[in-house]
Amino acid sequence: MTKPNLSESLFTPQLIQQETSTLVKYILPSSADVNKSMDVNKSTHANTHTFRGEQPERWYRIINWLGWIWKGINPLEIQDVLSRIAVTDAERSHEHLLDTVIGYRKGNWAYEWSQQAMHWQQKALHTEKISVDPSEKAEEINKCWLKAAMLYNIAAYPHLRGDVLADQAVILANKAYENAAHHSDYQLKKLKFKLEGGKSVTGLLHIPAVVQEPCPTILVCASLDSLQSDFWRLFREHFSPMGVAMLTVDMPSVGYSAGFTLTQDTCSLHQQVLQQLDTIPWIDHTRVGIFGFRFGANIAIRLAYLEPHLMKGVAVVSPVVHGLLHDEKLQQKIPSMYKDIVASRLGIHHVDEDALRSELSCYSLKNQGLLGRRCAVPMLSVYWKDDIFSPGEDSKLIARSSMDGALLAIPSTPAYSGFSKALHEASVWLKDKID
């Protein structure tokens, strides 16, 4: 009997799983609940030309067009999948929200994106069997597996706890990403770090092909809605050409870190990883930098205060360190999906919004008594004007708090080149600090 492949064994017919938008409940009347039930979703719309994404009318999820394109997905492919979701007449959890189809079937978010991923997975497997120039073949296989990995990532988005279909998509995403690395010119090491309480966490170390000795390394702290593999282009286009390795670790409650909950000690998991870098033979632990994106910046900056002797510099992009966590007016502008993500990361499934706001204020690094104090670690903060997630004052506070602080403002348009500039400037700045 032929053994079914991983995709078939994971996505088999079973009891209907709880639909993503229903996983987080609200105890009190909530803007999030209202948004989910209204004919027209009135959540604040982020600019469609930024990498924060947009939450268009009649969609629960923030549609991150430019972010997904940056990860290697063709915009026509994105439009095709979204169209398939939109036109289905299957039952939805919220009648007027297109991406809330119940069950793993046509029109369901995880189903449609996974089907698209399987297309590239099959193409990769087919390419492995044909006879062509070995270098061209490896490049094509790598491209196909990477596309599959990114599409499975989107299938799992926004990575809420208890989303069984998303968890299955993550398994496939991680496997596809490993397969892509097998056909690349760089090395991918899957490292297991022991943590307190007998637990462990998996990190991915990306090593440039040209390096033959322990590498200077950047530890990447991702945003709340990302997987480790989402940062492959950061490595391939920015770190690798400089001979710098990249170590990624998933945010608590996501991916390989799914068994952990985000706490007020936001950097606890990453801190324990950082403390073990001197045991990794491929890493020059005396030349380590930290890169943080959005909420990952909260982790990165906190690490700078707690473990200054273990790093040479910290660069953050669109940091979430105080304003959004402290200011109720800013929180009211955030789309309902992002509120659900925050609650999910904190392990809260039944949300009292007043209690959640009070809890979030405790995650402010300024309220914790860190930001505002002088920090010996050089810190660069990059921000966009009118960013609802990251007010410019947060970045200015970071720069002022460092004894060697730097600040970079990026114009909102043109968005794609602006985002590339932000990553390039942060990468070059970090490389200078760890040399």
Q: Topology, pairings included?
A:
Layout: H1 6-10, E1 25-26, H2 31-37, H3 65-70, H4 75-87, H5 109-129, H6 134-156, H7 164-182, E2 187-194, E3 200-207, E4 215-221, H8 232-239, E5 245-249, H9 268-274, E6 283-293, H10 295-306, E7 313-317, H11 323-326, H12 328-331, H13 336-345, E8 350-351, H14 353-361, E9 379-384, H15 392-401, E10 405-410, H16 415-434
Parallel strand pairs: 1-8, 4-5, 4-6, 6-7, 7-9, 9-10
Antiparallel strand pairs: 2-3, 3-5
Helix pairs in contact: 2-13, 4-5, 5-6, 5-7, 6-7
Characterization of this structure:
The protein has 435 residues and is an alpha/beta fold. Helices cover 41% and strands 14% of the residues. The protein has 16 helices and 10 strands. The strands form 2 sheets. It has an 8-stranded mixed beta sheet, sandwiched between helices. A two-stranded parallel sheet has the order 1-8. Helix 2 (31-37) crosses helix 13 (336-345), helix 5 (109-129) runs parallel beside helix 7 (164-182) and helix 6 runs antiparallel to helix 7. It starts with 5 loop residues before the first helix and ends with a helix.
The fraction of residues assigned to DSSP E strands is 5-15%
Distinct helical segment count: 16
Instruction: Please give the largest β-sheet.
Output: 8 strands, mixed
Spatial extent as radius of gyration: 21 Å
Distance between the termini: 56 Å
Structural class: alpha/beta
Q: Can you tell me the overall shape?
A: globular
Proportion in helices: 40-55%
Give, in order, the helices and strands.
HEHHHHHHEEEHEHEHEHHHEHEHEH
